[in-house]
Amino acid sequence: MSAARLAVVGAVGEAAGRPLRLIRCANASCAEARAACLASPPCDTVEVRPAGRRARGAAAPPPPPTATLRASFASFGSRVDPLLREEALLCRSLAAWARSGAVPPGAYAARHRRLLWRDHFCDEYAAPRGEALPDLGAALPPAPPAPAHCPPREAELLVFTYHNRPSAWLCAFLRSLAFRGVPALVLGWQPHAFARANNVFYFTDRVYTYLRYLRACGSIGAEAKLIFCDADEMLQLGAAPLRRRAEELLARTGAQVVLSAEARCMPEKLGKLAWAHSVASGGAMHKKWPRCLNTGNWIGRAKPVAAMLHRICRPCQAGLDIDAVSRRYSRAYSAQVREWVYSEQAELMRLYLAKPPNESGWTLDFQQRLFHPNFWFNPQADTRVLPDGRIKNVHTGSLPAFIHYNGNSKAMWTGPHAPAALSAALRRAYEKRTGDTGLHKLDAFLRDHVAFLGPTFQRDTNVTFADVCRGGAI
């Protein structure tokens, strides 16, 4: 592609095209990103975002500007529903605006303009040059009556995550489990299916998928402890300490389900109510302890977890069967099931705060014994990196089992706190224990102890770490 046809724009969001690669620029010109795009078809757009802000009280300079290489959308349309054509036309106009140069490189478009693409589910009506439009619009037929792959009844601790395809984060997460010999189940695995750009779709699909799986696997032991994790995190404890922490947390709180606690509430308007709710729960709490519910992690036993998921499943509350929800949801244009696409965190927080403490059966991991969502914490002021590279919270005094790089902590936690630094520290510890400097033993663990399950919950037995990590590694 010639330089004359290359569009260099400011932070306009997904409307500028399908993301291909993120580049950290050396300076404001981001010349290296332009060169990389010219050399990397189908890239024809460089979205340059301004430098980040320096963390309050930090001596380090702010992060450099970043550039996202993108392939612009060339075709728009809807296969099935004439009523969606207007949405497709709106998305076409948003794409034209994004590449028009109205927002110069290094500047941000107004937030409401950036959100329009997501709010109208435009990725479902658009395709880059040379690609077909998403094949959406029809409900799936009922699944054949094949038995689901379920964990053994005697399993005492089960770690779940939801991820549909390979990624650097899933690679790092599963490696951290393999380093410590902790088995896992990956639900939602569909590496060749259409990937929607709107994360909210996957947040609710995670609810539907977990609920379907727990119903399909009634053989899970009544006393088994189930830990649910996002994939953008890493385990920094061993298998035995993890089991002890899980048992201690459920015993100490007396709760049926314990959820991750975050330093600031999303939605933010619930912050004061969440603070008052935590105070009313009893027990002395440091003012810096997190008080806000986060659905990136939770732990409980199968029956109460399924009951909680059913409470936050809106179509279930309307009387629909969860299997019928799944068949419709996974194939529909999101605009056709708009009421089923919602923030499950906001829904669960609303239900959690609606009852007095200790009455719902749910509580938060205020002391972060298991879960540490990084978002809203200042890494320098609020945490300490131990000599072995693991991360401890200075306010709770806890060395959490899972470090969750949610929100902007993926980019804003730098130096020894960065995801790559923690991943490297966990690898060094593994290599020192095992001598496996080439990570050759991990594929055997993945084959024997990690189950990748698609929509019918049949196990894909051919997945290797080369497959999981083909999108890069942290």
TrEMBL record:
<protein>
    <recommendedName>
        <fullName>Glycosyltransferase family 92 protein</fullName>
    </recommendedName>
</protein>
